[in-house]
Design goal:
With 315 residues, this protein is an alpha/beta fold. Helix content is 38%, strand content 15%. The chain folds into 2 domains: 145 residues, 3-Layer(aba) Sandwich (Rossmann fold), CATH 3.40.50.1370; 155 residues, Aspartate/ornithine carbamoyltransferase (Rossmann fold, 3-Layer(aba) Sandwich), CATH 3.40.50.1370. The chain is built from 11 helices and 11 strands.
Length: 315
């Protein structure tokens, strides 16, 4: 039996297969309950703090929606200019202060390792909502749930990850959870944006099939799931390098219909130009359903880390 009560959620690598399956199952339960009623009272009286030191739409709003759908409340900020951080307050002092007000903290920060630093000083659970080019574990969980919803299973699928694999925190966390399902991975990126070797090496050491290529169409032809990502302008110190790479891969409807019309198309969003708008109408374009699934998965996580789910039932 799994027990995530009081646990920090910092990395995709921290989960076992049993924990992943339980989170997926619980997300499905919450989805079904919300089809019958707009809100639940499972977390009535609990408070979530959302501390977003970096811009966010889906992660912040879906965390807040998840907490409120569960009957809890939300405090926090989405701009450091309105906080004491703008006066020079350290991250540790901000976390120690907010820890006095909330039962769980979700944090996004531009610096790799910031969520772990927050967890070291907080008494309550800390959930990593993205730390720079490091990880984004809750995105990986909702991606996993989306794949199961869209494909019916996860085990043994071929997943092609395309775009910015060097700085893409969603894919860094994603490969850590896909390994439990023996997925075959095809990594599609320009040489300058390859997945870091330190991320790939443990997968290969485990015997997982990992292929690297620069050819999007070749990967698309083999994939059950195509996971597109944007080239992240904010991660480049050299604007000219971004301009050179930003249009590396563009998925069009014509390409999908010609090469692999049954592929499931995903994207963590926001997109820029890497998926053409005409792809949106395809029934297997799952990225907006993927965004909705973030609510159910984050509901599951909040309920688990706050100890409101035990032995398969509500506490």
């Amino acid at each position: 039996m799994i027990n995530l009560k009081g646990k920090d959620i910092l990395s995709g690598a921290q989960f076992s297969r049993e924990e992943l399956d339980r989170i997926m199952d619980l997300a499905g339960e919450f989805r079904a309950r919300l089809e019958r009623t707009p809100s639940l009272d499972l977390l009535n009286g609990y408070i979530l703090a959302t501390l977003f030191f970096e811009p966010s739409t889906r992660t912040r709003l879906s965390f807040e929606t998840a907490m409120q759908r569960l009957g809890g409340r939300v405090i926090g900020f989405s701009s450091v200019e309105s906080t004491s951080v703008a006066k020079g307050e350290s991250l540790a002092d901000t976390i120690r202060t907010v820890d006095q007000y909330a039962d769980v903290i979700a944090i996004r920060h531009p610096r790799i390792g910031a969520a772990r630093e927050a967890a070291e000083v907080a008494e309550h659970p800390v959930i990593n909502g993205g730390d720079g080019a490091g990880e984004h574990p809750t995105q990986a969980l909702l991606d996993l749930y989306t794949i199961r919803r869209e494909r019916g299973e996860i085990d043994g699928l071929t997943i092609a990850l395309s775009g910015d694999l060097k700085y893409g925190r969603t894919v860094h966390s994603g490969v850590q959870v896909y390994r439990h399902y023996r997925c075959r991975l095809i990594l599609v990126a320009p040489d300058a944006l390859r997945m870091p070797e330190e991320v790939i090496a443990p997968l290969r050491a485990q015997g997982l099939p990992v292929e690297e290529t620069t050819d999007l169409e070749a990967a698309l032809a083999q994939a059950d799931v195509l996971y597109m990502t944007r080239i992240q302008k904010e991660r480049f110190s050299d604007p000219a390098e971004y301009e050179r790479l930003k249009g590396s891969y563009i998925l069009t409807r014509e390409m999908v219909e010609r090469v692999n019309p049954r592929v499931t198309i995903m994207h963590p969003l926001p997109r820029v130009d890497e998926i053409a708008p005409d792809v949106d109408a395809l029934p297997n374009a799952a990225y907006f359903r993927q965004a909705r699934n973030g609510v159910y998965v984050r509901m599951a996580l909040l309920a688990l880390v706050l100890g409101r789910i035990g032995a398969g039932v509500w506490v």
